[in-house]
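Private note to self, pasted from the team thread so I don't lose it. Backbone tokens:
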């Protein structure tokens, strides 16, 4: 990956795979809500608190749930990704 997050930022690949509903229907992209789950591709070194660097609670490969409107969308090597602040990550799945 040619993009390295800085500070308390996290690079995430949104999981927007087409998962059928229990009824078997598949919702088209135009009618879907923005995904709120994804895989961490990179993490920054952490932010500073009282002059001391604090490492992030997530690591590469973690599946995370993040705030619906959090992050900045970027395209890297033709792939749609998100750069999120650690505070926008709500939890780690699994």
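Design output:
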């Amino acid at each position: 990956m040619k993009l390295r997050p800085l500070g308390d930022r996290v690079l995430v690949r949104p999981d927007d795979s087409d998962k059928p509903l229990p009824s078997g229907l598949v919702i088209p992209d135009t009618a879907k809500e923005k995904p709120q789950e994804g895989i961490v591709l990179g993490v920054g070194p952490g932010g500073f608190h009282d002059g001391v660097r604090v490492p992030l609670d997530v690591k590469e490969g973690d599946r995370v749930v993040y705030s619906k409107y959090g992050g900045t969308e970027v395209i890297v090597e033709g792939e749609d990704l998100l750069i999120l602040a650690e505070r926008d990550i709500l939890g780690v799945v699994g």
